[in-house]
Amino acid sequence: MDTLTVVIICIAVFIIQMLLCFLGKKLFIKLIPALLFAASFVIFLILTVTASGWDSLAYIVFVMLSAIFLIPCAIAWAIWLIKIYIDKRNKEKVMLTQLDAS
User: Alpha-carbon distance 49 to 56, whole Å?
Assistant: First the structure.
């Protein structure tokens, strides 16, 4: 695969994962891209170990691509968790200031 193609796919995966993290209501919906790439990673890793000859070399490429596509998912999840943490912290500060004002 061309590097530009991989970068474009990574950006698309990141955008989709971010949208699902912020707009999805259920955890399973938010996990769909990450689960798909994790499953493909495991499947291709098993195929790499069980294949013989040149086939195993081709499966290694797919293992690496699956791992690369997991990175934008992890970054999107990290951004979403940081946002949740900041919102929670800000909510606690507002509650403390309201208690102090009373």
Answer: 7
Residue 86, number of CB atoms within 10 A of its CB: 10
What's the rounded Cα separation, in Å, for the pair 63 and 95?
Answer: 48
pTM: 0.83
DSSP collapsed to 3 states, the chain: CCHHHHHHHHHHHHHHHHHHHHHCCCHHHHHHHHHHHHHHHHHHHHHHHHCCCHHHHHHHHHHHHHHHHHHHHHHHHHHHHHHHHHHHHHHHHHHHHHHHHC
pLDDT digit string, tens, across residues 29-53: 999 999 999 999 999 999 999 998 8
Closest by CA to 91, choosing from 79, 101, 83, is: 83
Give dist(CA 90, CA 98) in Å, integer.
12
| pLDDT tens-digit map of 11-31 | 999 999 999 999 989 999 999
